[in-house]
Amino acid sequence: MYNIHSDQTINFMDPTEPEVGDLVKIKIRVPKILGQVKGNVFFTPEKNSKRYSHAEMIKEYSTKFFNYFSYSFKMPNRIMRYHFEINSIDQKKKIKYDAMGICEHRSLHDFILIPDFKVPEWSYGRVYYQIFVDRFYNGDKNNDPVNNEYIYDGKPIVKKEWNEMPDHLNGHREFYGGDLQGVLDKKDYLKDLGIEAIYFNPLFVSPSPHKYDTQDYYNIDPHFGIIEEDVDGKDKYKVRTTSKKNLNKSNELFKNLVDAFHEENIKIIIDGVFNHCGSFNKWIDEKNLYGEGVMNNEDSPFKKYFYWHGDFYEGWWGYATLPKLNYENMDLWNEIADVGIKWTKEYNVDGWRLDVADELAKDFETNSSFWNFFRKKVEQNSPNKLIFSEIYKSPLPWLEKKSWHTIMNYITAMDPISYFLTGVEKHNDNFRKDLYQNSEYFVSAVNWALSQLPMNSKYAALNQLSNHDHSRWLTRTTQKVQRLKEGNHDEASAGYDIDIFKVGLLLMFLIPGSPGIYYGDEIGLSGFTDPDNRRPYPWDNMNELNKQNLDFTKSLVKFYKSSDVFKYSSFKFIQWFDGYVSFVLWNEKESYLVLVNSNHKKEIKIHHNLIGEIRNPEIVFQTRNENINIKNENEILSLNLPEKIGVVVKI
């Protein structure tokens, strides 16, 4: 294996976010074992094009094991796609290298360089904490939903006690009473954990606990905020959620929360659900809460915001509670952009997470054009805000159009890590024996995913192992193929593997991206997929395992924040076989070797020519305490690697 490498960090490209007209230098590292070589860079005008131009690179400098070649060009006003070809004169072979690494034939994954594409630098490698507010902490019982307060999806809502488990059938009508005051009450806890950003699940007025069915985009739900004006009887919900006093007080509380966390240098990201709204929304107004929606006014100006089939609006995936919004209407574009501006400008929110963003509208051009419009409007009114999207496939077509800055990184983190370490799909819906402990699959999957992200998007992407849509990471380590059924909550943690749990966290933190902790994952909260993954945080019922996991997570966060290498650096896999992988992270100052073993113990030997010269290797982090002997002799680093462990070596 030839340890050729290039990327788009400052190690191999300058500047890293070029503007039109900038002089850009790109570099590639070539191992000396290839002998005398020539380096060429190939530029292609469009994706997968067979047409190209090429230029010979110059040899710039050498180290003990590597030669470095460079080429400079002026950034044009178009996307640049390029790959390399190394011609070994001594070995009489040509080696192509693209964003996925060495490729045998024509490059299919060119490096992508998008002119004038800027991602907020503060977002690189930031430690996130995701809060599903209703289940985090109840700081104000006066705003709690009450039993039978209203009918939702055909049945009355239910107020649960904090120590009760979600019901397998009624979970979308169950409320526990968590709120924004509860988040403020736990500010010191979050600060002590070491987080650097909070990503909130939706906060706007909505009849559900998850709030992905927005009722009012312009106000915080008083059930999360403050309820001062209240009544009993059939109008209770209407008064609680439409009273200007309640809405203004709730918005003010949210502003105070943003300010309080900003004082601790903790950023705030909120969830924007703009593909669809809810049937309670004032534009539809199915419950006649506002008196101005389509269902109560045939001539409502909001009718054009929706798709209609006769007298019926189209629901997202057929759900009547989720009317799909019609982006063929420019008034809706401006309305949603105004929402984006309001919360980033007036409330100083640091960015938006966009729910099912790739499903908005009915065609790609409308979709990507709207998101580009939305991003520009937000940035023009409040610069340096982050826009990232939920998407389960390659985001490159959208990023090339500058629709978003980055993504929720399912393709790089959650999917590959889960399959590699447990074999289990992220909902616990199936077990893939062919992917379990398959090192080659893991390396290929991660390299492909990283090739789909420009460098600045790569390190801002949100890595997670769990969230509100998928089973808990601890539960996946049980390797059960199962969902929540009546009374089987305990099965979600029976047979868990705590060593694999910790190895997964280490991988999620150190693979390029911004690590994200879903509330409760820091203590090893268990749960099958929705609704069981939304259990209340057990503040008063922590067991010894929870406390040990919390200590481990704190130590991992502290270690991660100890070096800028982990937040933004060059990344390269160097070895992979039999359930084991290792990779290197480095910048101009420091280098770290990460070794992960998912099964039985191994003796590992790594030649310096895979990494570069190693002088004083030192183990600086382990997922569990083990006596590991490390030697560095005759240009070979060797160590005994115990089973089911992750180890970080400073080199």
TrEMBL record:
A GO biological process of this protein is: carbohydrate metabolic process
**Which residue ranges does the record assign to the Glycosyl hydrolase family 13 catalytic domain?**
130-554
User: Where does the sequence pass through the membrane?
Assistant: none
Pfam families xref list: Alpha-amylase
Give the Gene Ontology MF terms in alphabetical order.
hydrolase activity, hydrolyzing O-glycosyl compounds
User: Do you know which PANTHER family this protein is assigned to?
Assistant: ALPHA-AMYLASE FAMILY MEMBER (PTHR10357), MALTODEXTRIN GLUCOSIDASE (PTHR10357:SF210)
Keywords annotated in UniProt:
Glycosidase, Hydrolase
Identify the taxonomic lineage of the organism of origin: Bacteria, Thermotogati, Thermotogota, Thermotogae, Petrotogales
Has the keyword Zinc been applied to this entry?
A: no
Q: What is this protein called?
A: Alpha-glucosidase
